[in-house]
Amino acid sequence: MKFILKQEGKFKYIEEGEGMPIILLHGLMGGLSNFSAVIKFFKNKGYRVLMPSLPIYDMPIMKSSIKSLAEFLYEFIKFKGLKNYIIIGNSIGGHIGLYYTKLFNKAKGLILTGSSGLYESGLGSGYTKRGDYKVMQKKVEEVFFDPKVATKSLVDEIFETVNNRNKLIKILAFAKSAIRHNMAKDLPKIKIPICLIWGKNDIVTPPHVANEFHKLLPNSDLYWIDKCGHAPMMEHPKKFNEMVLSWFSKRNLNTSK
């Protein structure tokens, strides 16, 4: 399903549905299409779903950091006048959500799936043979338990990105920032409800990372999806959406009040 990408000022974003706001944050190598099934599901369940395009390739190299993206998120939320919202972040998107919460503590709840922030295995690395399409295809397939999820269009998109020198430099800068901004000491201070949805076969942020997040976050719930890699919302969208909806009910977060 195609969604309209709006542009207002410096913000490009998808906005679908009406109701309690849900903000979606994509990963470093991810894009707006990664959350298509989530947008479609929740816009039809009485939620207002917003997904900003993160300015990963637009920020000056000296400002290419997790902190800068968290501040960008703050500006976007302020621009849209959002209140009583929930953030869902995958990979570096989860990290941005955590760092945003550390700085501003304004969300009602946070859902992390395959989030960075504690440990990153090869985040932004392995592109020395980026000109070799087969090598890149294998690398993309490894992100998922089922390699078929790595469609040709997805591989083509990432292949184009890593072979663009300017984009690759930005990706590596943000990957280094993610490693520098380890949040182990910050997590015990984050008190909002947090839902961890993790693929049992994630090799980028392996299962022990989810367990560590769960241990350090004082108000967290941990859910597992079997036969699933680093992006549960892409690989098992139905299970992912049902888990999110169930968690909203469990934590009484399914109203905008």
How would you characterize the overall build of this protein?
The protein is an alpha/beta fold and 257 residues long. The chain has one domain (6-120, 181-250): Rossmann fold. Helix content is 39%, strand content 17%. The protein has an eight-stranded mixed sheet with strand order 1-2-4-3-5-6-7-8, with helices on both faces. Helix 2 crosses helix 3 (92-104). The longest helix is centred in the C-terminal third of the chain and has 16 residues, at 165-180.
Largest sheet: 8 strands, mixed
Shape: globular
In angstroms, what is the radius of gyration? 17 Å
According to CATH, the fold-level topology is: Rossmann fold
User: For the largest beta sheet, what order do the strands appear in spatially?
Assistant: 1-2-4-3-5-6-7-8
CATH architecture label: 3-Layer(aba) Sandwich
Tell me the total number of β-strands.
8
Question: H/E element string?
Answer: EEEHEHEHEHHHEHEHH
- Average pLDDT across residues? 91
- At the fourth level of CATH, the homologous superfamily is Alpha/Beta hydrolase fold, catalytic domain
What is the percentage of strand-forming residues?
A: 15-25%
- Span of the ends, CA to CA: 30 Å
Low-confidence stretches: none
Please give the CATH class.
Alpha Beta
Share of helix, binned:
25-40%
Number of helices: 9
Structural class: alpha/beta
Q: What's the number of structural domains? A: 1
